[in-house]
Amino acid sequence: MKKVFVKSYGCQMNVYDAERMTDMLAAEGYSETKAMEEADLVILNTCHIREKAAEKVYSELGRVRELKQEREAQGHETKIVVAGCVAQAEGKEILRRQSAVDVVVGPQNYHHLPDLLKRAKSERPVDTEFPIEDKFDHLPRLEKSRIQTRGVTAFLTIQEGCDKFCTFCVVPYTRGAEVSRPVAKILDEAMRLADAGVRELTLIGQNVNAYHGEGPDGQTWSLGRLLRRLAEVPAIARLRYTTSHPRDMDDELILAHGDLPALMPYLHLPVQSGSDRILDAMNRKHTGDEYRRLIERIRKVQPNLALSSDFIVGFPGETDADFEDTMRLVADVGFASSFSFKYSPRPGTPAAESDAQLPEEVKSERLARLQNLLETQRQAFNHGTVGQTLDVLLEKPGRHPGQMAGKSPYLQPVQFETDAHRIGEIVTVRIVRAGSNSLFGELIGPGDKAAA
Ligand code: SAH
Ligand code: SF4
Ligand code: F3S
């Protein structure tokens, strides 16, 4: 049997896509390996979001090329595929920069992989045209045995692409226009996942709350409505969604946070900056105060809401005062966890053309200050859960014998001792201590017995 090794960079969408690629290649006779050295097929599923992410691909390709040569000397052939957002953005350029690459395939075209691999016997195909057909219709159905190897939590793509065109961002170019999958297909996938033991679904999309899919009633469903329906799927105990845009938090979605116990009280809602001037230059189409008011509205229906966000520092033209606005917004809102980045100019995006680029030292200094504050908030949030009783979904054995590890509603890893519970159960745990990355607790309540 031939072996495939897939390495994914970037966001959850790439994780999901990588799983679909391995599922599809399984049907073509490839088994998945975690060891690149023994792979007949190496797929790098790449990310183009920041320069560092994109450049990493070329250094990795250098290593893969050496491997290919070593294997060739031993009489084994290795095919190298570059997939994902760098493939989409750079296309043929990748073949030019790295002669060992056999196939380049964009994120909307990977259902063509079996055919592309055949063509790769005599040419070096590049497939980055946005196809008219829906790739999901051409991917194999999820197999129970394959789902089970991936655990009790799963990603489910419900929407792809982005029409927002934030001026710093490559995603609208690499992933194309917003497309929502029909409700029936999402439900079918959700049931299959549930049937194989999945308890927690994270609905994903580049702009997931812009979801507007065709419902079984012929109407257009919003994310709020879809969540309501998914909450009825037996065995699915937890729902999450990511990544959302503040502009698309409509009333139906906000209300769902109050009404649906399965919808976890943890929301990733990137704000990027706290300065109205910078938000405007970023084309985010909301102000800092609008973001604050939005959070207040969601907290009104879900007082336990914990937040996470993405931030960019050093956007072109960002002054000290703009940066202080960001620090103030962070202090006002309070985040349980966050991702923060130095602005990275990306080819083809409007902000990259600006004359007001900031020096690296300024970006580094601001990033350090922001990350310091965000880390203090993260630790404070984790310490704040000590003494609380939280539901924990058991995901795997713990670090030590007799321990289990799972996640709190706020996605915090929790370790505790038990000998009677199984992966997939949800138990009640009192948190007794917060470490730097995990919480430690003691079991106080039984499982819900719905384990896989
Ligand atoms: N769709 C999501 C974000 C996807 S990209 C949203 O709208 O929030 C993930 C994060 O990468 C962004 O939220 C942003 O903080 C960061 N990012 C995107 N482009 C960037 C760039 N050019 N430089 C630095 N960070 C960037
Ligand atoms: Fe990028 Fe903005 Fe679209 Fe998010 S909303 S993917 S940051 S363009
Ligand atoms: Fe990266 Fe593409 Fe995701 S650029 S963040 S892999 S959508």
Can you give a write-up of this model?
Residues 148-380 form the Radical SAM core domain. [4Fe-4S] cluster 1 binds at residues 11, 47, 85. The chain is an alpha/beta fold. The longest helix has 25 residues, at 360-384. It contains 14 helices and 21 strands. The protein has helices spanning 12-26, 51-73, 84-90, 92-97, 113-119, 144-148, 171-174, 183-195, 223-230, 251-259, 276-281, 288-301, 320-333, 360-384; strands at 2-8, 30-32, 41-46, 79-83, 103-105, 126-127, 153-157, 159-160, 179-180, 200-204, 212-214, 220-222, 238-242, 266-268, 306-313, 337-342, 389-397, 403-407, 413-417, 426-434, 439-445. The chain has three domains: 2-127, Rossmann fold, CATH 3.40.50.12160; 135-384, tm_1862 like domain (pyruvate-formate lyase- activating enzyme), CATH 3.80.30; 389-446, Nucleic acid-binding proteins (OB fold (Dihydrolipoamide Acetyltransferase, E2P), Beta Barrel). A six-stranded parallel β-sheet has the order 2-1-3-4-5-6, sandwiched between helices. The chain has a five-stranded mixed beta barrel with strand order 17-18-19-21-20. Strands 7-10-13 form a three-stranded parallel β-sheet, with helices on both faces.
